[in-house]
Amino acid sequence: FDLTDIHRPQREIEEKIDAAARILTEGGLLAIPTETVYGLGANGLDGAAVRRIFEAKGRPQDNPLILHVPSSQWLPRFCEDVPPLAYVLAARFWPGPLTMILRRKSVVPDETTAGLDTVGVRCPNHMVTQAIIKAAGVPVAAPSANLSGRPSCTCAADVLEDMDGKIDGIVDGGPCQVGVESTILDLTCVPPRLLRPGGLPLEELEAVVGEIVVDKAVTGALAEGEKPKAPGMKYRHYAPKAPVTVVVGSPEKSAQVIEKHMGPASGIICFDEYAGLFAGHELQTLGSYTDKSAQAQRVFDALRAFDATSVTEIYAQCPDSRGLGLAVGNRLKKAAGFHIIDADARRIVIGIT
Ligand code: TXA
Ligand code: MG
């Protein structure tokens, strides 16, 4: 379904939205656009349909899915003991890149929550997808639409690359505006806990919530055998085929460190300002180092692009952790299996893989 052209006749758009909604209500798999990344959706109340998501992605069974809803009015249908703070946050940040973890009601099947007694819920900021969910009348369980372990999909062509022949439809809603997945906040504990940094900066949440505990999995500081609270945070993720090394520190210094380490078959991910240093290399630019929105939009595309090249290793510059930098850096570090060089300290830090 190509729904990128909003100048089509209204009736034609409505027919496509109804057809897309029917795929969901009939138990099928439908890739949907959101402002963060493309999702691979199914009826979140239909255990059999949700099982097909896991098969299509090759996703580990213990990794729960997020339910997508059109408004906070749907929360009491699927969640128990919804705290007032959830409504405050929904009023402020929904539709938008915030997923809240809440206690689930038993209508939400074990397939969706991977057996947990909690469920992640979010309201995506995409008009087409909101219209499809409303037309279907059911919450849509949707992980990111990539094959498990690959970088997330930020356009319909990426979804086709990973899911062609495995799913019943792709809704093309254009490129994703945010480019990294939603921020996940666990509201079942006090103080609330950040389980995954994402498209909504931590600082914006803190301004409303007050104290937020940052889960150790966010920084990669988990000890051997320790389990992150968001099961998905423990997997090596977003990884291109070639191994990635992330170089943190000031951009001048990280560029120097990469220049020193790189060989002829090294691919480079760098800020626009430093592209000139790496002429002749397979190169993906992240945008200006002052423009973290651009970096978020570019990061998955940059990681994905190397799989079509013959690079044997990849070095990446990394933004600082303020604002969207926390999410962009987290995605790069996860792609690197937390193989990190600190250009300021000139020491190599190896965390969990
Ligand atoms: O922006 C997004 O959140 C995208 C779009 C499609 O909405 N979705 C997405 O889904 O990123 P996925 O499945 O790729 O990542 C969901 C993450 C996983 O790390 C999972 O472990 C965690 O959310 N999660 C889901 N339900 C949870 C729960 N009840 N408790 C803790 N973590 C949960
Ligand atoms: Mg994912």
From TrEMBL:
It catalyses: 3'-dephospho-CoA + ATP = ADP + CoA + H(+). Residues 14-200 form the YrdC-like domain. Pathway: Cofactor biosynthesis; coenzyme A biosynthesis; CoA from (R)-pantothenate: step 5/5. The chain holds residues 6 to 358 of 554 of the full protein. Its EC number is 2.7.1.24. This is Dephospho-CoA kinase. Its main location: cytoplasm. It is an enzyme of class 2 (transferase). Keywords: ATP-binding, Coenzyme A biosynthesis, Cytoplasm, Kinase, Nucleotide-binding, Nucleotidyltransferase, Transferase, tRNA processing. It is found in: Cytoplasm. Catalyzes the phosphorylation of the 3'-hydroxyl group of dephosphocoenzyme A to form coenzyme A. Belongs to the CoaE family.
